[in-house]
Every structure is written in structure tokens, then in C-alpha cells.
Amino acid sequence: MLITHDTRCALDTVVDLVNTAPEDEPASDGLPDVAALGDFVRNHEISDVGTLSEFDLSAVRKIRGRFASVFAAPDARTAAGLINELVAAAGTTPRLTDHDGYDWHVHYFAPGASVADHLAADCGMALAFFVVAGEQERLRRCEAPDCRRAFVDLSRNRSRRYCDSRTCGNRLHVAAYRARRKEAAG
Asked: Where in the numbering of this chain does the Zinc finger CGNR domain appear (predicted)?
């Protein structure tokens, strides 16, 4: 599956957005305030975003939950329905652009759109490409028991199970190794 630069950026953005959601307690929200949303926008180089407000923060948190539902969708039809709702509500207006030193690419958000609509349109379309390609199962959650972070499995054979093999994957492999050693020592 060919993934263009702008689609990859949108995928990284939507994964990071979903992963800002609080796991168990609202105090652990990765977007606690407008300043954090501003940092998120800058860190992901989200273009054409004006001054952010509490309204923007609330709207982004809402679509974050809707994107989380896409990652939890049991099948492509469910994922497609969720993505269609997100993209339609954003009022997509596809247009070609070549800003900030990047070659031609497509923006799906309307000029002057809110940051929430921008994310819903661009990130929604990036996820839509996976459903269209029959690759919805690549939109996953980490299989580590104490981690449910979202990720997109871009491995060749669709075998990635953990959000990060150096943390979650390694921790589980070390635990399994220690359990085997303990059992062998008996």
C-alpha cells in the first residue's frame, strides 16, 4: 500500500491524538488545556490553524473519542460508517496545495476550518484510505495488558502487536522469559 507523506503525517497525528485520551482518570488527559492543544498543533505542524479557544479544545476532544471508535471498530463496515460521519461533519473541501516546502498534496479541510474540522477531514481521509485498501485491521490497539495505545501496523506482514516493541513488546518478552526460567528452575 502506497502511503504518501501527507497521509503518513495525518496517520501519525490521529494516532497521537487518540493516545492523548485519559486511560483511567481525567487527570491524565494529554490535552488538559488550550496550551496543550496549541503544543499538539505545533508539534504536528498542522497548518492553517488560527487562535485556539476552549471551544476548539472541547471539539478536538469530541473527535478524539470518535477516532478512538474507529480504532475499536470490529469490521471495515463499522469503521467506514464512523469515518464517513467524521468526514461529512467536517465539511470536506479537497484542494491541492504546496505549502511550507512540501510538494503538491491534498488538504481535505475547508479554508478557515476549525482545528477539529481540520483533523476530522485530513485524519479521517487518511484512515479512509486504509478501509478502501482493505487494510482496516492495521488500525490497532497495543496488545500489552497494561497498555491500550493506538497505532497503525505498517509492517509488511501485518504482524505488529505492540505500540512500541522497545517498551511494551520488550517488557512482555522479558516477563515471559523470566517465567520460563523460573518454571525450568522449578
From this structure: 138-181
Non-local CB neighbours of 161 within 8 Å, separated by 6+ positions: 140, 142, 143, 169
Which is nearest to 88 in space by CA: 112, 136, 121, 60? 121
- Look up residue 140 and give its amino acid: R
DSSP character at residue 110: P
CATH number for the segment(s) 5-185: 1.10.3300.10
C-alpha to C-alpha distance for 64 and 16, rounded to whole angstroms: 10
- Residue ranges covered by each domain of the chain: 5-185
Q: What are phi and psi of 59, to 5 degrees?
A: -65, -40
Structure confidence by residue, pLDDT tens digits, 38-79: 999 999 999 888 899 999 999 999 999 999 999 999 999 999
Pairing mode, strands 95-97 and 139-141: unpaired
